[in-house]
Structure formats: structure tokens, C-alpha cells
Specification:
Helix content is 36%, strand content 22%. It is of the alpha+beta class. It is globular.
């Protein structure tokens, strides 16, 4: 079963984010707090959204998708950027990842959005194979860039 997250899901979403960070060999980089997640997902101006894959037999969270809206200036409509997709190892192969992506694709289709996009680490061959099997194409001509920490602070500091 796929369902939209509720405020009561914050602890499990936080735990899933921590598990994903450990899987991606970046546990120290996952610094989001439950309070920050609550504010982002359910505060006065939610900026991100989440769906949970729930195991039908146990009722336990098997995985999650956390996403936000984008906008295509070329298409003139919104899209979805999937920030995180994670299925717990014991639940992999049970269709949860596909069901989460299907739900996001349905949201795109219902709302007239043009794109569903995400990034994947280049070493994550199981995920890459899964995405290709769904018909997703790598955007090899584009390179992602990111400013964080000291570089972000340096560029964003007010001129003295």
C-alpha cells in the first residue's frame, strides 16, 4: 500500500532517511532532525512531500519517497523532483519501489506535470538497472553541481 505521509510518520521517515544515508555511505551527512522534517512536510508552507510504502501484512513502513515540485521553463509546467527513494533491504523485490514511483507518476499525470526526475549514485547498479527497466533515461549530458557549507556561505555572504 502506498499512502501520503502524516505527521505521525515523522519518526519512521527520519529513521528511513538515516538508513538511506548509511546505505549511501554518507551517514554523517544526514543531519536533518525530526523537527526540521515536520516543519518542511507539515508546517504552514510545506515545501516537500512524502509517501510511504507500507507492508500490507505487517503494517510496517517498507520504504518512502520524499519529493518536491520543480518548474520547467521550456514546458511551462511543474514537475516532480524525487529527492529520496528508499526501500528497506528486507522489503526489496516486493514491488514497493515501483509502487512509490507509480504513485508519483500518477500525481504528475493527474496534475499535468511534465517531468518526474531524480538522481542516482553512479555506483548504485541495482537502482540504475531498476530505473532503466521502468523506461527512465539517464541525463548524461547534464552534470549536477552543488554548493554547500563553506562554499555556499562564501558565495552567499553579504558584501562587506
Amino acid at each position: 500500500m502506498i499512502r501520503a505521509a502524516t505527521p505521525a510518520d515523522i519518526p519512521v521517515i527520519h529513521a528511513l532517511i538515516r538508513e538511506l544515508a548509511a546505505y549511501e555511505k554518507a551517514a554523517d551527512e544526514a543531519r536533518a532532525t525530526p523537527e526540521q522534517l515536520h516543519e518542511a512536510l507539515f508546517g504552514p508552507r510545506p515545501a516537500v512531500f512524502a509517501h510511504l510504502a507500507v507492508d500490507d501484512s505487517t503494517g510496517e513502513a517498507a520504504g518512502f519517497a520524499l519529493w518536491f515540485l520543480t518548474f520547467s521553463t521550456w514546458r511551462g509546467v511543474h514537475g516532480i523532483h524525487l529527492e529520496d527513494l528508499y526501500v528497506r533491504p528486507a522489503a526489496r523485490g516486493g514491488g514497493h519501489g515501483r509502487a512509490l514511483l507509480t504513485e508519483l507518476a500518477r500525481i504528475c499525470v493527474r496534475r499535468g506535470y511534465a517531468r518526474l526526475e531524480w538522481s542516482v549514485l553512479d555506483w548504485n547498479e541495482p537502482a540504475i538497472g531498476f530505473y532503466r527497466a521502468l523506461g527512465a533515461r539517464a541525463q548524461d549530458e547534464w552534470r549536477g553541481y552543488r554548493l554547500t557549507d563553506a562554499a555556499l556561505a562564501a558565495l552567499g555572504s553579504p558584501d562587506d
